[in-house]
Structure formats: structure tokens, C-alpha cells
TrEMBL record:
Name of the protein this chain belongs to: D-glutamate cyclase, mitochondrial
Free-text function comment from the UniProt entry: D-glutamate cyclase that converts D-glutamate to 5-oxo-D-proline.
Molecular function GO labels: D-glutamate cyclase activity
Organism lineage: Eukaryota, Metazoa, Chordata, Craniata, Vertebrata
Keyword Cytoplasm belongs to the record: no
Annotated localization: Mitochondrion matrix
Gene name for this UniProt entry: DGLUCY
Domain of life: Eukaryota
Family assignment from sequence similarity: Belongs to the D-glutamate cyclase family.
Matches recorded under Gene3D superfamilies: PSTPO5379-like, PSTPO5379-like domain, TON_0340
Signal peptide: none
Amino acid sequence: MVFTGGLRSLLPLAVRNLIRFNKLNTSNTSGMAEGYKQANVVILHKSLADNFEKFCHANNGPLPLLYRSKPGDWKCPSLSSNSDIRTDCLQYRVYEYGLCTGTLTSLKEYSDQLKDMVTFYLGCSFSFEKAVQKLGVPVRNIEQKSNVSMYKTDVPCLSVATFCCNLVVTMRPIPEDKLEAVVLATYPLKESHGAPVHIGDAGLLGIQDFSNPDYGDPVQPHPGDVPVFWACGVTGMEAISNCKSPLAFAHSPGCMFITDQKNEDAEAYLKEIPEVHCISQSPLYYSIVSAAAVKRIRDLESLIGIDPAGRNQGPVIHPLLRLARKFSKSPVRGHRGVKHLFCQDQLLKACLSISHAQSVLITTGFPTHFNHEPPEENDGPPGAIAIAAMLQALGKYVVIVTDLRAMNLFKQIIEEAVQQGILKAPVPLMSYQGDASESALMFLCDDGNVKKPRFDHLIAIERAGMAADGNYYNARKINIKHLVDPIDELFIAARTIPGVTTTGIGDGGNELGMGKVKEAVKKHIKNGDVIACDVEADFTIVAGVSNWGGYAVACSLYILNTCEIHDRYLRKAIGFPRLSKKVVWASALPSVTKEENLLQILRHHGVRSGITASLEMEVDGLSFYSTHSDMIEKLLGVLH
């Protein structure tokens, strides 16, 4: 007789008895014995057990270890009473030399071999489904009476001895407005895989056919649902398959062992509050970060958004700036309407996107002093180098792209920055002229193939931006196009490359990437109707001085990578936390001493202040010692 009653309300022991005596006609255990933990099962020869345990600890997102048995022990007293691992899973898989050679409903025929084997019980995402449903979040696989969808990814696990494989994930479609609730509910449940490891486009995980899961059943999303992926214990099956041991067993995907342990109380374990932020629409991609980290980054954004006009009393303003304000016909810092260009959370979203990038292109250089040689101003390069230093420390590939005529200048600046300890290593320099032999797509992608981009993220900081008429203007409305290479084309082309995002950092609206705020520039910035950059970036960071934006990006990347919640999401819950590198990352942060030394390097090479064309220790007419050093200290203060 087959049991057909409600399985949700049954106690685990009752469900196990039904399974043991083949009284259930179902393909998976999702939704059974609600409120109790379920477990993935891996059974290996005792000679492999120690290394597999190390593999679990090294990849505890997909393989949270609940219990390891002794050889030949078919029970697990800390997880359940009156259980027998030979009979208490709906279905088992048999692996011989890495190949799945069959499925069984009982392992009793292998009792002799099992005497020399060790059973591993690993946490399962079925355990958190009740917690998710309590929040009013639909669990589509339960609604559709199907197994959850499981996919192989291209994300490698951390290998241990003969155990190596790629991560396997489960997918549940979640309504967009419920994403944060789901993350909040699952994040504390570490023994049930914890928070999602990916939210958004499946292709970013290397999943080629979303409609055809590798394990389980296809689950149909509803309109407005977002694919959400959790690390999956089936990863253990991939590991034992690749290990190619003579004999091993595992539960069949979805056919879990149901324990007597109740699920954890999520609120009791919630030390930090995770937040979900969308950082890309094409492809769709979300990131996760703690609320505490978000607050600190917003504090940084508020600091750099200060218009120096609010600080123009007393000694903070250099005498040359006072003269400039008195006699110059050009716009003068402090009266430029920067506050009208501000966009909330652009620093946060830009830095989340950069944090996920592996390869970053930075461009800078604004030749506003067309009557001087070199014509560059000293706002931009320091911010670019501050970003590059942090990216280097984080292990990302970074290049700087600038005008061909300025390559030698930047080469010398970078070499001296390395000598002074401002950069740990030289940053590769590139130029782009946009001639017939080199299109923007060829520059950004291998063989111009948009599926093979060389860079994940492009950053422009105080880089001359193309206006609507195709020219480039300084703040005085003087056309400097003859000094500017068309690097804008790279940002325009990047919008056609899936997965490549861009950031523009500026302080006046005529910088590359400021196209997003061009209407505000035209309305609130002097000469804005002419000088406004027409080229958009995905993220627009507006600062009182562009260098401040660069410093804030470096500080934000430090905050994100020292955030445990974000770190786990970055590494897909694979490997160990990277917080041991915190000291290295801290050493890459900007400092008053570093920026003072860099400004001295720029002075030595004749790079001048933007507003006054002075070679004194100032940027944009603001004294380094009384204004910029103070800003750097305030930004660093947010980190502590």
C-alpha cells in the first residue's frame, strides 16, 4: 500500500519509515516534514574520508558538513533516531570508477562493502523552503510539484587531493520584490547552504541551457520572477565522480535523508543584515552586501559630493583661488552647481560592479591647459592611480588608457609612483586612436567578438568627454578636440557588449561618462549647453573634485571586500574567506603622504592645477594641505 496523505506535517521518523518500506510514490523529498533539516548523502571508502572532509570544509557553501560517520556505521545518532542510511533515502546512485552505473532504493545488498565506508551527511536547501514560505515567498518547485532545478556551473571548487569539480547550484525563481526577503531568510542558515551565491542571468555561471537542468526538473518562472541560485550538495556527487574511486554511493538528486533536527531560527543567527542591489540589467545581475557596508559607502558618497563652495571661508581656500574668483571669466570651483548633478547610490552600484570585475580599464587626462606643455591638469591622474592601486591589491588586471601624445608623460608618472610606493607594480599603458585599422570592438574584445571581452569594467575619471556636437570643451567653452583621442568610442561600444559596465567620475559635467546627467549640466553648469558630455556611463559618480571620487572608489572597494557577506557572494561560497588579505588591501588605500608625493611628481612633470594653471601644491585651485589632505583623512575615517 502506497501512502498518499500529506507529507508536510509528518514527523521525520514517520517519513523515513515510509521511505524505508517503499510506501511513497514520489520523486523527491521537497516539502516533506516541514521545519526539519534534510541532508545530501555521500558514502566513500574510509581511505578517502579525511580528504573528502577537508574538501567539504574548503567548500562549505555547497558542502556544509552536518555529520561524518565512523566506518560501517549506518546510523547518525546526532541527526536522527532509529535511522539506517542503507534504506532511508528515496533513491541512491551507485558510482564505480567515477561513472554512475545505476540507481537503487536500498543499499542493503552492499552491506559488506559498507563496513569499510564512511557516510557524510551534508546540508540541503530543501531545509530552508519552509522559512522562505513563511515570508509569503512562493517556492515554485513546490507549487509545481516538481523537483528543484540543479545546474552544473563553470565555477571551480577549491580542490583537495583527488577531489576536484565545479560547483553545482539549485535554482528557484523568486519575484523581484521578494529578493531581499529571501536573502534575509536564508543568509543565517549556513547548514542549509546559506544565502544565494548568484542572482540573475544563468549564463554568468556558465549555464548554457537554462531550460534543461543537469539534475532535477525544469521549474517554470512566473512573469517578474528572477532566477536565484544557491550552492548545492550535488556538488559532492561531481566530486566523487571525478575522484574515480572503485565504489561510492550518493543519494539521487532531490531524494534527501530527512533528519530529526529542526531548522535554525534565522533571526537568532542574524548578526549582519544583507541587502540586494541590481548592478546590471543586460545581463541581469544583482549583488549582495551588508547594510553596514552600504551605509559606509553612502557616507563616502556624501563626503565627496560636498561642493567646495561650502568650505570657502578662512584659510581653506588658496589665495590663487580667491584671485581666480575675482578676476576670471571662467567658472570657478565652488559655484558650479555640482550638487544638481548628484545621483544617489552611484558610488555604491559602480563599486559593486567593479568588485565583481576581473579586468578593469581606467582612462583619465583632461588637457584643459592648451597653451601649456603638457596641457594636462592634475585632477584625474591621482584618482586614477588610487583606483589602480586598490585593483592591483585585489588581484584584478588593470590598464590605463590615455592619449597617444601623453603616453610618455604617464609612463614616467607611473614609474615614479612605483618607486615612491604609491603603486605596488607598474600599470600597463595603452592608447586608442580609433583609426580605420582599430575599431572600438576590436580594442575591447578578442577579434572583435562581443562574447570575449578583454575588460569587464571601464572607468573614466576626469577624462575629457565628447559634447553633442562631437567636440571636446574645457569649462571655459574652448574646444580642445585637437588634444583628445576618441576614447569615448570605447564607452559607446561597451554598451553593446553584454556583461561590460562603465563608470564616469567627474565634477563639472564635461567629463566622459557624464551623459547621464547632461540635462542637469545644461541647466545648472555655466556653459553647460555647450560643454556637457553627451556620452553616458552606466554609473555616474559626481564629486566636488574628481580625485575625491577616485579616492572614494578605492575606499569603497576596500569596504566591500572586507564585508563578509559580499566576500562570500563574490567567491560563490567556494574556498575560504579572503579577509586574511585585509592588511594588503589596507596598504593600497590612498593616504595623505601618498597623495602629497604623487602631487609632487605631477608638479615635477609640469602638470598644473585645473583652475589656476598653478604649479603649487594644489588641485583645482584648492590647497592640498588644507583641503585635499583633509578630505583624504575624512574618507579614511569612514573605514574605521
